[in-house]
Design goal:
The protein is mainly α. It has 13 helices and four strands. It is 73% helix and 4% strand. Strand 2 (157-159) and strand 3 form a beta hairpin.
Length: 317
């Protein structure tokens, strides 16, 4: 079997992961593995949203975190204004609001700028995020708001000395379902294949009778769905603030997407888990460094961009 550079890189990455896991057990920090997996939900979902939009449209979506924050805000409002719908109803409402936000961004901003340089669209998505945060501050003031978790029990499981809450178990289950559903959508449905075709040959796709505009709307709606799920599953931690998921999830999610491969959805999922490990490890080993998790995340992002900018599983768009 011929080993190309990509295969060698992936093998080395797998070996590095195995050695890293062995090192954690050898140094009695195996609990970091549990913490990393249980806290990976927002990073994986944000990374998947970023990779999905870039793969389909070539746009870096810096508003991905705000899809989640808008969902948290909508969850809070639904619980405050319509308590009779119950928590599940409020979660569904919040996710639908996030999907609607994604569709609105595509129709009002992305579509009119579809012929503009990609850097213009990148700046536009950053502007959307800033506008969203400013609107949240204007509507709710710059203060923390209380929003309860869907499931309150904190010690459902104890793995390697770490309590895993019901909320995190729910998040992991939903995340796995989303990854499997996305894989089936892109590999086994004609609509998923149309999304891939429109990203590679938009003109030929139009000639085949597939509307690239509708495909774009679908992609941004799915991006809103992923952000909304990240918001309602990982956002409610007792309180939330304007720009919550952007401040805590955008940079790690972007780093995860780049690490796994910005054009690869499986890579984004893998990158989300790896980034969660880095964050957990930075919390335990970076006590002497202010902002340990953030420092290690930025260090990893810089290293990936310098050594292998296409990521572990990425390739040409």
């Amino acid at each position: 079997m011929k080993l190309d550079r990509t295969t060698i890189t992936r093998v080395l990455a797998a070996l590095a992961g195995l050695l890293g896991g062995a090192a954690l057990f050898a140094t009695d920090r195996q609990s970091t593995i549990v913490t990393g997996i249980s806290a990976s939900v927002p990073y994986c979902l944000v990374a998947l949203g970023i990779a999905l939009v870039f793969k389909a449209t070539g746009v870096f979506n810096f508003a991905q975190g705000e899809f989640g924050t808008v969902a948290i805000f909508a969850l809070y409002l639904a619980r405050f204004w319509f308590p009779w719908v119950g928590y599940v109803g409020a979660m569904l409402f919040a996710v639908l609001v996030a999907v609607g936000f994604g569709l609105l961004v595509e129709r009002a901003i992305i579509r009119p700028l579809s012929e503009a340089p990609r850097v213009t669209l990148l700046v536009a998505t950053a502007g959307i995020a800033l506008l969203s945060i400013a609107t949240q501050i204007w509507l709710g003031e710059a203060q923390a708001r209380n929003v309860e978790k869907a499931l309150s029990r904190e010690n459902r499981f104890n793995v390697l000395g770490i309590n895993v809450s019901d909320q995190r178990v729910l998040g992991i289950i939903v995340m796995i379902i989303v990854v499997v559903a996305l894989a089936a959508f892109f590999n086994r449905t004609s609509l998923g294949l149309a999304v891939l075709a429109s990203s590679q040959e938009p003109t030929a796709t139009e000639l085949c009778g597939i509307s690239v505009k509708r495909v774009s709307a679908l992609v941004w709606g799915l991006s809103g769905l992923l952000g909304g799920l990240a918001g309602v599953l990982a956002g409610p931690t007792g309180t939330f603030t304007p720009g919550q998921l952007t401040s805590v999830g955008l940079v790690p999610g972007f780093t995860a997407a780049v690490l796994g491969g910005i054009t690869s959805l499986p890579g984004a999922f893998l990158g989300g888990i790896l980034i969660s490990f880095i964050q957990a490890l930075g919390t335990t080993t970076g006590s002497s460094i202010k902002g340990g998790p953030a420092f290690f995340t930025f260090l990893l992002l810089a290293g990936v961009l310098l050594v292998r900018p296409q990521g572990l599983l990425g390739g040409k768009r």
